[in-house]
Amino acid sequence: MKKDYKVIGFDADDTLWVNEPYFRDSENAFCSLLSIYMEPALVQRVLFRIEVKNMPLYGYGVKAFMLSMMEAALEVSRNQLTGDIMKQIIALGKEQLNKEVVLLEGVSEVLEKMKEKGQKVVVITKGDLLDQERKLAKSGLDSYFHHVEIMSEKHENDYAKLLEHLEVDAGDFLMIGNSIKSDILPVLNIGGYGIHIPFHETWEFEKIDLKVDHPHFMEINHVSELHQLLGL
């Protein structure tokens, strides 16, 4: 791994701020709510199956999650869902959309050092456009970023198009994130560099059973380790 890059990209959710625990809290509340129809563990399986099925249509984020919860609730209840339960499902989604943005420890300090160094830094995230813009504004971090990219997907061609827009070669780009599947592998595959910072909760869809062995890859335990790795 080298220390100098023309552009450094950060994932947002569970890399800059807390996200996945809020989804799990909503999911647990949803499964408990529907336990009058089915065991919570079985409700969770139905919900995940429907989420995955709906991704090409709805994409990612809380709003897509809400729609999938509604569809799952109808299936679990065999279309006997009451208006009161539907209201509670909508309330779960609205509550999640209004959550405070909690920064992960050490993030602000790293970004401040990068700014002092004159490093070009971008945010590259998936999810609902309005929700991600809202979280970025509430985070107070927006002034650190040269560019914000909210993608529908994080595939190799998506990263390649972004790097072309930023006028940077893949070999001069470093991506930092918590997902091996979305943040790291696509970047390595186009010739870029990746640093993985695991988060204590990972969405089932983002899990991948693969040990990465690549000269452009490194895994660290905490964002503060970037100070030494990148000479900040």
Structure explained in plain terms:
- By secondary structure, this protein is an alpha/beta fold.
- The protein has 2 domains: 7-16 and 104-230, 3-Layer(aba) Sandwich (Rossmann fold), CATH 3.40.50.1000; 20-97, DNA polymerase, domain 1, CATH 1.10.150.
- The chain contains 9 helices and 6 strands, in the order βαααααβαβαβαββα.
- The chain has a 6-stranded parallel sheet with strand order 3-2-1-4-5-6, sandwiched between helices.
- α1 packs antiparallel against α4.
- The longest helix is centred in the first third of the chain and has 19 residues, at 40-58.
Which blocks of ≥5 consecutive residues have pLDDT under 50?
A: none
Structural class: alpha/beta
What is the alpha-carbon Rg in Å? Answer: 19 Å
**Main sheet makeup:** 6 strands, parallel
CATH fold-level assignment of the largest domain: Rossmann fold
Categorize the overall geometry.
elongated
Strand content: 5-15%
Helices and strands, in order, run as EHHHHHEHEHEHEEH
Counting DSSP H or I runs of 4 or more residues, the number of helices is 9
Concise synopsis of the structure shown:
The chain is α/β, with parallel strands linked by helices and 232 residues long. 47% of the residues lie in helices and 12% in strands. The protein contains nine helices and six strands; from the N terminus they run βαααααβαβαβαββα.
